Amino acid sequence: MPSQAMLNLFNSQIDMELFSSNQYRQMGAWCESKGLLGCARFLVQQAEEELDHMRKMIDFVHERGEMVVMGALDAPRHQFDDLVQVFRSGLDHEKKVTASIHAMAEQALSEKDFATFNFLQWFVAEQVEEEALFQAILDRMALIGSDDRGLFFIDQEIPTMRPARPAN
């Protein structure tokens, strides 16, 4: 059974995952309004992944015999200067999520709650991939450029991008 401190961290993280989903959906709406349909699809897919993360956490808390208590959410940002700002905001947000997951893992270890620590390892690895993916997108955008032709190519490529994995 997790401590109250650990439950509080789970509740906050569950809220953060739901906010992340809302933020990515809003970013996708911005992209769609600019005719960047490939980027919009990518961001909606990201939004769905965040909901999956939220559901995993809710299920884990319930499996441990506790109840999730969700809080109120802020409205996501909806105005961006350009596509680079959209993906820079995504990377910055993923870094905040990473810090939050790490704080949870640190708390679990300090409490010797090894079941929770083990559960969180998937999220630790996932965050490495998420940050790498957003950084790769920003790197690609820097290479291609953001003029009209660059945006066209970026919009075609982003939906196909996945985190690079080292060869085994």
TrEMBL record:
<dbReference type="GO" id="GO:0008199">
    <property type="term" value="F:ferric iron binding"/>
</dbReference>
<dbReference type="GO" id="GO:0008198">
    <property type="term" value="F:ferrous iron binding"/>
</dbReference>
<dbReference type="InterPro" id="IPR041719">
    <property type="entry name" value="Ferritin_prok"/>
</dbReference>
<feature type="binding site">
    <location>
        <position position="53"/>
    </location>
    <ligand>
        <name>Fe cation</name>
    </ligand>
</feature>
<dbReference type="InterPro" id="IPR012347">
    <property type="entry name" value="Ferritin-like"/>
</dbReference>
<dbReference type="InterPro" id="IPR001519">
    <property type="entry name" value="Ferritin"/>
</dbReference>
<dbReference type="InterPro" id="IPR009078">
    <property type="entry name" value="Ferritin-like_SF"/>
</dbReference>
<dbReference type="Pfam" id="PF00210">
    <property type="entry name" value="Ferritin"/>
</dbReference>
<dbReference type="InterPro" id="IPR009040">
    <property type="entry name" value="Ferritin-like_diiron"/>
</dbReference>
<feature type="domain" description="Ferritin-like diiron">
    <location>
        <begin position="1"/>
        <end position="145"/>
    </location>
</feature>
<dbReference type="GO" id="GO:0005829">
    <property type="term" value="C:cytosol"/>
</dbReference>
<keyword id="KW-0409">Iron storage</keyword>
<protein>
    <recommendedName>
        <fullName>Ferritin</fullName>
        <ecNumber>1.16.3.2</ecNumber>
    </recommendedName>
</protein>
<comment type="similarity">
    <text>Belongs to the ferritin family. Prokaryotic subfamily.</text>
</comment>
<keyword id="KW-0560">Oxidoreductase</keyword>
<feature type="binding site">
    <location>
        <position position="50"/>
    </location>
    <ligand>
        <name>Fe cation</name>
    </ligand>
</feature>
<feature type="binding site">
    <location>
        <position position="94"/>
    </location>
    <ligand>
        <name>Fe cation</name>
    </ligand>
</feature>
<keyword id="KW-0408">Iron</keyword>
<dbReference type="InterPro" id="IPR008331">
    <property type="entry name" value="Ferritin_DPS_dom"/>
</dbReference>
<dbReference type="GO" id="GO:0006826">
    <property type="term" value="P:iron ion transport"/>
</dbReference>
<keyword id="KW-0963">Cytoplasm</keyword>
<dbReference type="GO" id="GO:0006879">
    <property type="term" value="P:intracellular iron ion homeostasis"/>
</dbReference>
<dbReference type="GO" id="GO:0004322">
    <property type="term" value="F:ferroxidase activity"/>
</dbReference>
<keyword id="KW-0479">Metal-binding</keyword>
<dbReference type="GO" id="GO:0042802">
    <property type="term" value="F:identical protein binding"/>
</dbReference>
<feature type="binding site">
    <location>
        <position position="17"/>
    </location>
    <ligand>
        <name>Fe cation</name>
    </ligand>
</feature>
<feature type="binding site">
    <location>
        <position position="127"/>
    </location>
    <ligand>
        <name>Fe cation</name>
    </ligand>
</feature>
<comment type="function">
    <text>Iron-storage protein.</text>
</comment>
